[in-house]
Amino acid sequence: MDYVLLQQYWFFLVSLLGALLVFLLFVQGGQTLLYTIGKTELEQTMLVNSLGRKWEFTFTTLVTFGGAFFASFPLFYSTSFGGAYWVWMVILFCFILQAVAYEFRSKAGNVLGKKTFEIFLMINGFGGVVLLGAAVGTFFTGSEFIVNKMNLTNELSPAISQWQNSWHGLEAAFNVLNLLLGLAVLFLSRLMASLYFINNINDEAIVTRSRKQLLINTVLFLATFLPFLVWVLLKDGYAVDPVTQIVSMQPYKYFLNLIQMPILLVVLLIGVVSLLFGIGKTLLKAEYKGGIWFAGVGAVLAVLVLFLISGLNNTAYYPSNSDLQSSLTIGNSCSSPFTLTAMSWVSLLIPFVLAYIFYAWRAINAKPIDKAEMTSEEHLY
Amino acid sequence: MESLDYSLVDWSRAQFALTAMYHWIFVPLTLGLGVIVSIMETIYYKTGNEEWKKITKFWMTLFGVNFAIGVATGIIMEFQFGTNWSNYSWFVGDIFGAPLAIEGVMAFFMESTFIAVMFFGWNKVGKGFHLASTWLTVIGATISALWILVANAWMQFPVGMTFNPDTVRNEMTDFWAVLFSPVAMNKFSHTVTSSWILGAAFVVGVSSWYLLKKREVSLAKKSIKIAAIFGFVGSILAAYTGDGSAYEVAQHQPMKLAAMESMFTGQKNAPLVIFGVLNPQKKAYDDGVEPYLYKVEVPSVLSYLANKDFNSFVPGINDLMMGGFPTKDTYGKEIMALSVKEKMASGKIAVQALSDYKKAKAEKNDSLAAVSKSLMEDNYANFGYGFIKDEKQVMPNVPMTCYSFHAMVVVGIFFIFFFLYLILASSKGWIENQKWILRLGILGTVMAYVGSQAGWIVAEVGRQPWVIQDIMPSYAAVSSIEVGAVQTTFFLFAILFTVLLVAEVGIMIRQIKKGAEH
Predict the structure, then answer these.
(1) Cβ distance of A343 and B101 shorter than 8 Å
(2) ipTM of the complex
(3) What is the residue-averaged pLDDT of chain B?
(4) Does B120 touch chain A (CB under 8 A)?
(5) Using alpha carbons only, what angle is made at residue A287 by residues A282 and A291, rounded to the nearest 5 degrees?
(6) What's the first-to-final CA gap in chain A, in angstroms?
(7) Which of A81, A152, A327, B210 is 20 to 30 Å from A138 by CA-CA measure?
(8) Do A81 and B116 touch (CB under 8 A)?
(9) Prediction pTM value
């Protein structure tokens, strides 16, 4: 495969993983709704157990997203993680708390008590999601760093990436555009969680409250996501000259990316329609439970397009506001042709992986969770 | 530009060590106990005996508690390469990133998918599907170990790559050389089999406690029988692969081997120290102080372990510092070993040549670029020495490496005989009445953890100062962040992981006290 095509293939795969991660954040969204939808201890147990059988997918997708970024775009891994230290560390802390919370929450002898582990789930649900969204927002708003590979020959200070402020990434959360995206991702995760509960739990009270939360969070999602989207499409973007590789600001760059790659525009529209259809049908038809699938596919497609317009069509996907020429592009930050090719062979396993996930998921989810199961099941979260 | 602060390197190393050691409390139990649980469920599947189902579920509960905290402590390991070792991530990310990504695709999804079936599928899927899910969970965990250990082994013995001065990084040229490097294969098999020992020791320990308390007697006896056989197989394989690992260390990291034995003066027919007390007065390789206050040696064994030849020469730390002894280069060619000072000079030439090459390329001076590139390639094997300020930095912490190595070996040998005796005692029906062996069984759990941690201390402390052997020292690999930031995250991790460990131990103890009946 041609090197440029390989680079784009891997940017697509990483973007797809990112989009799947955003969908799977319904687990985090569900955690934030624990007390809103679950009013009794039994209801909360049902919610936790419903989410608890999925949390590892979200977690694993996050880890694989990181690993795939490392393997295919190591300069991003190096620059962003090493520079935006604090924002990534806080996100990681949020996920560490989640990883033990499900298993430990209801176990006797857990020292910290049930409530503490539920607070861990809240921290992960609110903090982890908003900060992840804000961190992704910097793909459009830029960050403050300088990359100079020749520093490696400086024995006194060999670090090639230097972050240019002492906030080390936390500043992302104070940028309005980033914050809008962070909040949009949070509300998306909560509306997805509502759809998931409707699909996965057989309990009238929970379904009724989930439908209410679906409406509220849909409104909030639209109120945050649409301004973000309009702002991104109207703002100047970070364009890369395909010949000289010089990065410069270009008006309406992301809007132009959509126009110049009409397939992405079509996919975005399909995604939005599918998302709204899943939500709308669930709200309008009381007995309908399959909204999660339409909305989920829609969210994946829409987020995928957002990732793709940040880097395809000669765009710097991780721009530097301190030094435009330090901005990371698909071309200057990717792995070698050999590694991308080797990894591409491995990527052929992905359909197989998706197939067994689907098979196992179906086997476990054949029957929705209900109160009876919470009293008969031996292994409970 | 400010000079890099050495304390940043120390704190970054301390954080990595802290998080890795915490993570390694839980991973070997997942690997070892996972196989034991799978074997138990296989027996249930074959016999249909409900007691085996009960036994399987009991150990599976403990497995689940341990697995969760293993996942929690594991996520930071991957991302830390970026957050704290960003220069490393660029310099070798082209090679190192691939195993991590493959680990995610091949292993993590397998684990996370089938562990859900393993815990929640008892009443939802057939017996065969459930058994397959249990095995697939532990196979996923083991495949995960394979890829991360391939990555770690590559740091110790970098193969299958070439340095590209245009991108200023190492690039993979041979995927199979990275995957099947002898260091990787030995490291994987040694780590996994030693984890089997720990899993078996854990089962024996808990079961011994039950027998001492005269509770869960049938469960405990059956569990000990399985664990003893499995542990014995694991300990024999760990000894065999440990021998292979020692050979690889001798071939590719002779300084680590010398530190493991605290051997400062090399010799032919080099002896292996089986017991010794190090001299705390020994501060530097060239201070003339005897390294041991007391030692018991077996003649020529170290020569055999290192080179499969009792008469061969094994270099000591002084020899490696001063050079001048016959050895082989990376291509197997006979050469005279360079001193560290000569390697430092060579490394500085390589670093300078890279700088000259980039400048010449920028100025489109092709002839100067070609000369600089050639000079850099000739000296690239010592590139990392270009960042070494003082030759003494090349010597790792000898007491820590040496004591850890011997602790690991003692624990390993102990378990061979211990498991062998347990097999005999359980087949003869003695086990219930021998309180001393049951008490030793409980102590054995602690010993297994000590041995397991000690093994990693040998591997990681013994290779300092290198993050990539001879190519990049830890000094050149760290991110450019404030020391205070790393200190803060160090203490946050220390507090958080300790609290989580306390919670985990609390749950484990409560589950064990409850027993299988509840």
Answers:
(1) yes
(2) 0.93
(3) 95
(4) yes
(5) 30
(6) 47
(7) A152
(8) no
(9) 0.93
